[in-house]
Amino acid sequence: MSQVKKIIARLGSKLAPQIRYLAPAYSSEGEDLILKRIFDNKKNGTYVDVGAHHPFRVSNTYIFYKKRWKGINIDPNPGSKAMFDRYRPLDTNLEMGVSLTRQHLTYHIFNDPALNTFSPDKVEEYTQDPKYRVIREKQIETWPLGDILDQYLPAGTPIDFLTIDAEGLDMDVLRSNNWQKYRPSYILVESNPFLLGDMYNTELGKFMQAAGYDIFAKTYYTYIFRNIKSH
């Protein structure tokens, strides 16, 4: 019996009609539903997930994995590769970070792993809330995104979307890409909320415009850009 059918059986006939119309989503703010609408019935797509965090919890890519897409999941959290290999065996799963140069950086591990970060500024921000604390630190190998794609993306494979959630280092991830060689159709970047009218007064907006991307959609924290050179 499927999980949905088990839930329906437990809740009884009163709630069965509502459950029947549920739309599965795994992203924190519905980003995967926007992407699902963009790509509609596209098969055999490719994604790259930087700061993938978890195989399906708050994942922008899991709904596509279930549709038999494949991609690269990158996350520095110790043990993340083993979990991704278990639940996402068709993907390429990398336990490493992304930075401007090849180096080792101090990775701050929180009691809530969704907050793990290389950024000292984010550590200071997050620990203002007494329920969050750093429980350990570890030196993690980091590569530029362009180098990772050179090594792990099959030659000639177009990237349908790149999603980045690097807890304060999203701009470094963007800067580390080889934009002449790797141009995803869509890019999702997390940023503090600002008015869309101010987009091209922000560091993120200016960078993406210079790279040949325009804003396409957004959620509260996530901005979705489209490659205007391919449309």
Automatic annotation (TrEMBL):
It comes from Chitinophaga silvisoli. The keyword Kinase does not apply. SUPFAM superfamilies: S-adenosyl-L-methionine-dependent methyltransferases. This is FkbM family methyltransferase. One of its GO terms (biological process) is endosomal transport. One of its GO terms (cellular component) is cytoplasm. Residues 49-214 form the Methyltransferase FkbM domain. InterPro entries: EGF_Rcpt_Signaling_Reg, FkbM_mtfrase, SAM-dependent_MTases_sf. PANTHER family: PROTEIN STAR. Keywords: Methyltransferase, Transferase. GO terms for molecular function: methyltransferase activity. It holds the Pfam family Methyltransf_21. Signal peptide: none annotated.
